[in-house]
């Protein structure tokens, strides 16, 4: 592998236009390149679908459904799976989604982060199985996953050593020589970071994207609530939940992102489309 063009988690894009190539030199940090978007999602169809699946013996939740939607959309819209590292644009070679959960719903309850790996071919049942298996292994109080173990080892060291090590890891990341086991474990090296605020009855937020790692998107799903909606020039009260999205605008342009959101809406409006496996995952340019 040529470390100057490829990394463990992606390959450098060479055939993109000079304008796209220069943008990361102008906006050097993800925090420079935030754009935000909100989606209002009617929930009646989702609730009916989840109830139907439960009657059929399938445990499908909002978490499963929305992650399945984003996995499917990313598989069909590969620019969403790009990332910027050291002012260069890369295509990620897998779909990774990170999620933070609390082991107990208490103020001082332990928190942990997990990362799910997908190929993009998965149907909603396979997505649900991957999520539930990972959560079951990570949520037990007193257990440690890979993220916890690395953090424990780092924070057992003196403060100055931690600073030096984190700085060294950042430089290794820029040089494409960060060890694969760290990339595999790191929730910050991911396609999308998802926060499931609906589970704790909080509204959506616009969450910042981390400068550490290479996360391109941060999606927040808020609680279900009633809001006034205009339909056929009439105001009606509908059950909805809202999504707050923060995206690194360097990975794709506004039109591409807007069309991707339309595809998100298509799958949310008709979750049955997610029950079939995706035969062909669209590949990014060279």
Automatic annotation (TrEMBL):
UniProt keyword Acyltransferase present: yes
InterPro entries listed in its UniProt record: 2-oxoacid_DH_actylTfrase, CAT-like_dom_sf
Domain 2-oxoacid dehydrogenase acyltransferase catalytic: start-end pairs: 219-274
Protein name, UniProt field: 2-oxoacid dehydrogenases acyltransferase (Catalytic domain)
Parts forming coiled coils: none
Molecular function as annotated in GO: acyltransferase activity
Keywords associated with the record: Acyltransferase, Transferase
Transmembrane portions of the chain: none
Pfam families reported in the protein's UniProt record: 2-oxoacid_dh
Tagged with keyword Transferase: yes
């Amino acid at each position: 592998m040529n470390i100057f063009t490829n990394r463990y988690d992606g390959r450098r894009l060479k055939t993109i236009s000079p304008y796209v190539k220069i943008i990361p030199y102008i906006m050097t940090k993800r925090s420079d390149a935030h754009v935000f978007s909100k989606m209002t999602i009617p929930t009646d169809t989702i609730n009916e679908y989840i109830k139907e699946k439960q009657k059929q013996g399938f445990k499908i939740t909002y978490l499963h459904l929305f992650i399945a939607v984003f996995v499917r959309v990313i598989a069909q819209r590969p620019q969403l799976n790009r990332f910027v590292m050291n002012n260069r644009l890369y295509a990620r070679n897998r779909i990774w989604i990170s999620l933070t959960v609390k082991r107990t719903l208490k103020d001082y309850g332990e928190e942990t982060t997990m990362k799910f790996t997908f190929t993009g071919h998965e149907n909603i049942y396979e997505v649900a199985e991957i999520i539930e298996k990972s959560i079951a292994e990570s949520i037990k109080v007193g257990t440690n996953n890979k993220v916890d173990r690395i953090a424990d080892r780092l924070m057992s060291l003196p403060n100055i050593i931690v600073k030096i090590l984190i700085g060294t890891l950042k430089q290794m990341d820029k040089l494409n020589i960060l060890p694969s086991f760290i990339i595999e474990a790191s929730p910050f090296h991911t396609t999308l970071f998802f926060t499931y605020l609906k589970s704790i009855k909080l509204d959506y937020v616009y969450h910042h994207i981390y400068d550490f790692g290479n996360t391109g998107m941060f999606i927040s799903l808020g609680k279900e609530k009633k809001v006034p909606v205009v339909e056929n020039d009439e105001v009606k009260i509908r059950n909805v939940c809202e999504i707050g999205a923060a995206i690194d605008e360097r990975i794709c342009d506004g039109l591409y992102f807007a069309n991707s959101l339309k595809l998100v809406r298509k799958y949310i409006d008709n979750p049955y489309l997610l029950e079939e496996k995706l035969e062909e995952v669209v590949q990014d340019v060279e």
